[in-house]
Amino acid sequence: MMRRVVWFGGGMAAGAGGAVWAQRKVRAQIERARPSHLAVVASDAARAAGGVVREAVQEGRSAARDREAQLRNRYEPSRGPRQAPR
User: Fold this and answer.
1) 4 and 20 assigned to the same domain
2) 27 in the same domain as 44
């Protein structure tokens, strides 16, 4: 009879612990789905994407200036070497 009581108590403890764990997980998911949290996440993602785009545009402009200077030096040698405008 004592074994049954021990197993019953262990089952109750495991069930209660699982219920508390599940409740915490559900509350965390609810918090993550709130509009205020989603707005913060979206704005952070937009800022990060904007930084990447800005860097790509700067790199493209720099490469275009360098290439233009190379072509001008190649096809207009009478004017002497020119530096790319910055």
Assistant:
1) yes
2) no
Same domain, 29 and 49: no
Task: Looking at the structure, tell me whether residues 43 and 54 fall in a common domain.
Answer: yes
Could you tell me if 69 and 83 are in contact, meaning their C-beta atoms sit under 8 angstroms apart?
A: yes
Predicted model pTM: 0.44
Residues 55, 61: Cα–Cα separation, whole Å: 10
Query: Which domain, by its residues, includes 63?
Result: 35-86
E-assigned strand segments in the chain: none
Q: Both tokens of residue 70?
A: 């190379």
Q: Are residues 9 and 43 in the same domain?
A: no
pLDDT in tens, 27-82: 999 988 888 888 888 888 888 888 899 999 999 999 999 999 999 988 887 665 55
Q: Residue type for 86, please?
A: R
- How far apart CA 76 and CA 62 sit, in angstroms, is 21
